[in-house]
């Protein structure tokens, strides 16, 4: 009877210890490599910090009772690019450290097999070799810089995928591209050039300095993408439309980007 009581007491102590444990959680995509974990002693001085590891909610068979151990992801027969969640359960008062977390971060490994755009700005591209569900960022060359104009979520799996995005063209020749960004930096595609049917846009600041109006060659209102900067380079207005309300801007010199052109505007002092 005494022996049974001691066993019950021991289990209660162990359960209480684990009840106050923590969890280190890592989410990412499988890239074909294993994780390595630095495993300190428990704060009590008895045993090691980690007591259980789960991969996609399945308990691993890895030996965790050592100062460092490997999480064998290969044994789970995962496919490259598939989502993965690792839960490293540890005791209170200590914390393990994953030495190479970058191996489960999505990487931009896509290859573009075809990319083109029509005159209306419908951009279409085909990819292969994706290994992580990273977004494709669509950029348009305006005002001597690349401007982000949209985003399409990548599928992140092997095989061929087709994507489309409608770019809003400016007048004349347009240059666009796609790119992905991972922990190693940006990975842009080749530039795509097309000529739109959009006519050149003009601007006018009214005499009171309250409104900027955009028109086409025929003098009709024309919508365009625009940016207004102050003399310190701060963006004070940005959008898309045929008019911009600048009545709240302080008097002074500002820089206007619109269509594919740039101009300097002067807001007068108001009475």
Low-confidence stretches: 1-19
Give the helix/strand class. mainly beta
Helix content: under 10%
Query: What order do the SSEs take from the amino end to the carboxyl end, as H and E?
Result: HEEEEEEEEEEEEEEEEEEEEEE
Distinct helical segment count: 1
Shape: elongated
Radius of gyration: 29 Å
Strand fraction: over 45%
- Gap between N and C termini: 97 Å
Q: How many domains would you count in the coordinates? A: 3
Q: What characterizes the major β-sheet? A: 5 strands, antiparallel
- According to DSSP, the number of beta strands is 22
Summed over residues and divided by their number, the pLDDT gives a mean of: 90
Describe the structure.
The chain is mainly beta. The strands form 6 sheets. Strands 10, 11, 13, 14 and 15 form a 5-stranded antiparallel beta sheet that branches. The chain has a 4-stranded antiparallel beta sheet with strand order 1-6-3-4, with no helix packed on it. The chain is elongated.
What keywords describe this structure?
271 residues, mainly beta, Immunoglobulin-like, 3 domains, five-stranded antiparallel sheet, four-stranded antiparallel sheet, 1 helix, disordered N terminus
Secondary-structure map:
Elements: H1 2-19, E1 22-29, E2 35-38, E3 50-55, E4 58-59, E5 68-71, E6 83-90, E7 97-98, E8 111-117, E9 122-128, E10 135-142, E11 145-153, E12 161-166, E13 173-182, E14 185-188, E15 192-195, E16 202-205, E17 211-215, E18 224-229, E19 235-241, E20 243-245, E21 252-258, E22 261-267
Antiparallel strand pairs: 1-6, 2-5, 2-7, 3-4, 3-6, 8-9, 9-12, 10-11, 10-13, 13-14, 13-15, 16-17, 17-20, 18-19, 18-21, 21-22
């Amino acid at each position: 009877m005494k022996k049974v009581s001691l066993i019950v007491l021991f289990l209660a102590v162990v359960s209480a210890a684990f009840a106050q444990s923590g969890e280190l959680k890592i989410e990412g995509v499988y890239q074909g490599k294993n994780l390595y974990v630095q495993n300190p002693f428990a704060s009590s001085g008895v045993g090691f910090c980690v007591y259980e590891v789960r991969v996609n909610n399945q308990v691993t068979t890895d030996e965790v009772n050592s100062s460092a151990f490997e999480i064998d992801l290969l044994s789970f027969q995962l496919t490259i690019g598939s989502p993965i969640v690792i839960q490293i359960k540890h005791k209170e008062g200590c914390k393990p450290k994953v030495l190479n977390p970058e191996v489960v971060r999505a990487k931009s490994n896509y290859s573009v097999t075809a990319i083109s755009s029509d005159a209306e700005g419908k951009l279409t591209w085909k990819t292969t070799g994706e290994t992580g569900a990273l977004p494709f960022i669509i950029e348009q060359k305006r005002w001597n810089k690349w401007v982000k104009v949209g985003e399409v979520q990548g599928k992140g799996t092997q095989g061929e995928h087709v994507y489309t995005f409608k770019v809003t063209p400016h007048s004349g020749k347009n240059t666009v591209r796609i790119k992905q960004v991972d922990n190693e930096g940006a990975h842009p595609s080749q530039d795509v050039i097309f000529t739109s049917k959009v006519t050149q846009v003009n601007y006018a600041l009214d005499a009171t300095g309250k409104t900027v109006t955009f028109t086409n060659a025929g003098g009709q209102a024309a919508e365009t993408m625009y940016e207004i900067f102050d003399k310190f380079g701060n963006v004070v207005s940005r959008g898309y439309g045929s008019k911009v309300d600048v009545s709240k801007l302080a008097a002074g010199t500002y820089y206007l980007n619109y269509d594919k052109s740039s101009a300097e505007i002067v807001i007068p002092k108001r009475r």
